[in-house]
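Troubleshooting: if your tokenizer reports a length mismatch, compare against these two reference records.
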Amino acid sequence: MATTQNTYTGNGSLTEYSFTFPYLEESDVKVSLDGVDQLTTAYSFANATTISFNTAPANGVAIRIYRVTATDSAQATFFAGSAIRAQDLNDNNNQLLYATQETVNRRIDSTGGTMSGDLNMGGNKITNVADPTSNTDVVTKNYLDTFSFNPAGTGNVDFTGNITVAGTATFSDDVTINTTGALTIPDGTEAERPTAVTGMIRFNTDITQFEGYNGSSWSSIGGGATGGGADTVFFENSQTVTTNYTLTTNKNAVTAGPITINSGVTVTVPSGQSWVIV
């Protein structure tokens, strides 16, 4: 395969880099740093095969010197009755040859190939992609939508930014949250309670309290006594029972009245237990 480019890595001090491909015009030789084409004012030709940068490319910068042969017009044009020079014929042939070499080197074959630079899709889609199997494979929308997060056996997974999950996320192991901030949990009215599963917790905006589902009913959790400043004097409860409730086994209950039990709602006090309204 013909050489149409040379690549280097900057070291912060070297300013001159040679290239090994032939060209027709100096304007056909292009230079990029980290994939960004440079203006011709940023460098010059030290000689026919060496680029000299005004400022040394920084350490680690990817340098690419490559050829893009102009094809808007032929190098030489022939007219009836004019002399035909061998140099003109060679220049035209080389123009076609160089342009063909560049096309071959930079195209991606339909059977597969390797990119040597970034691919800008210009807002277009890459379609009909298979789900990933290797760590560096592209992730499809289908794979992301149906992704099951299960790091068991693969070590810890750390998230350092915000994570937004539009669906249900299932963790098969403990979840540790290391932050000085806070955890935001679901909130809503009693009418907005989800289909309950044992262990669910949420914030009830009707009674302004945290609540949890114990397997048979929702009940307030945490909170404790409230009061002004650091006072913890007042234990508050709602005045209306809107959901069926059964006292926890081997537990008594006390409630500040008056209390209204809505029509069709049942409060069950198991045998041997007591519910006192004061």
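Reference record two:
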Amino acid sequence: MSLLTVTMVVLAQFTTDIIRNTARSRVVKEVELNAQLTMNRMASEIRHAQSITSVSATEVVYLDANSVSTILRFDSANSRVERVINSIAESITTPEVRVTALNFTSIESAGIIKGIDLAISVSQKSISAPADYKHQANLATKVFARQKLY
């Protein structure tokens, strides 16, 4: 009976560890994937812009391929990145994560904005998650608007 009890305790501990590690891996994967997807979406938007109109720490205004004024901005109240066209905002981050920081810095040449230096921090949605389940992804890149060929 005591041998069976010891075996059950060891199996229970092993199962608990597997469940805990699986949950932790899921959090890391979700945060990393969403951070990369958000960064790629912003970079693509800027890369395909006709021109970059203005840059602040939390907002970029540019003309898209159809000459429509478009804004990429950090909505700190809702912890997300938004794309705004004609005063209609759409989130480009998923509800499973929250953006904790987003910084835009212009890269200029002869007074003309040529590109953007992007830095973003993304973490899991739950602020009150246990320390073992907290993860934050920090990404940075430089993006330049493509030059027109014609």
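Descriptive notes for reference record two:
- The mean pLDDT is 90.
- Helices lie at 2-47.
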